[in-house]
From TrEMBL:
SUPFAM superfamilies: GroES-like (SSF50129), NAD(P)-binding Rossmann-fold domains (SSF51735)
Family annotation (InterPro entries): ADH-like_C, ADH-like_N, ADH_Zn_CS, ER, GroES-like_sf, NAD(P)-bd_dom_sf, Zn_alcohol_dh
Family matches, as PROSITE patterns: ADH_ZINC (PS00059)
Chain ranges of the Enoyl reductase (ER) domain: 8-317
Keywords for the protein's UniProt record, in alphabetical order: Metal-binding, Oxidoreductase, Zinc
UniProt key word Protease: no
Pfam families reported in the protein's UniProt record: ADH_N, ADH_zinc_N
Species for this entry: Lentibacillus populi
Transmembrane portions of the chain: none
Protein name according to UniProt: Galactitol-1-phosphate 5-dehydrogenase
Key word Lyase present: no
Family: Belongs to the zinc-containing alcohol dehydrogenase family.
One term of GO molecular function: zinc ion binding
Superkingdom of the source species: Bacteria
Amino acid sequence: MRSLRLYGKQDMRFEEAEEPVIKNADDVIIRVKAVGICGSDISRFNKLGPYVEGTIFGHEFSGEVVEVGSNVENVKAGDRVAGCPAFNCGECESCRKGEPARCKKLHVMGAYHPGAYAEYAMLPAENVVPIPDNVDFDTAAMIEPSSVVVHGFYRTNMQPGAEVAVMGCGNIGLLAIQWAKIFGAKTVYAIDIDDAKLAIAKEVGADVVINSKEKAAHDQINELNGNHCVDVAIESAGSPITSAQVFALPKKGGQVVFMGIPYADINIVRSYFERIVRNELTVLGSWNAISAPFPGKEWSTSVHYMSTGQVNVKPIISHRLQLRQGPETFKKIINREESFGKVLFHPELG
């Protein structure tokens, strides 16, 4: 079968691989219809995060069940599904407490387990999420990043009528805008330095878009709402700069949720850091997309709101490509040769 395998730093190869074979009674083999590039894939490709040399890459995907093990009851051949790519050990303290996202050995397929940049992928039945007919495969391939976002919102104490700022309008930020509305936000401020991304943010539901390149976002928000600040600030850019600036956005007693991961040290100027103390902010980290019972309500909730159209990923998808275009596409992304939103591969196309 066609696949993308990672052999080393920036060494991804489009090549033939053996198709998965049922080995366990709970195995499910899925024909991959759509699989997306995640920011963590870019990092692993560029900097070599956890991986096994030659492992098939990728983890955000949807497809059709082709074969199941003897004990599988939740899906059957022909069913349309998405894959939850996370694996937790089930034995550490966090797992025993019903907190799988905090598992000490948490990892996703495409690292130590063959991934989804291939014509076929295999997962245990509990990782397979059925999707309704009105959720297309491209949309379903983004259930995983959607679940990452809603996992973060579940960590807040956000109430209907809240004002929310989303800092960074990449794929996660654009989903966060929509989830903020679902959670009852009265006003959502979308912040970025790229006007094209801000245009998409407006399309998916942002009430106010703010380009922070020339003037600090918190100053612009204060001018707009009378020095009121926001109830919840989402950091979704994963930038060292925004990871410091985000502390200036919430009001006294407000919350900051970190969904992005800055791959560099963060230097926080005193005026920003002091706000954590003086404004008694709650600072929350949010990791992965799973909870108990596994894989968690994040997944069923994402499927529901995608089926109603309240989570709309179509404006976020910028490229639909053949799998063979993978190596060149990854290099273009890290070299910033082209503007990319969410990139999806369709393995059946070649």
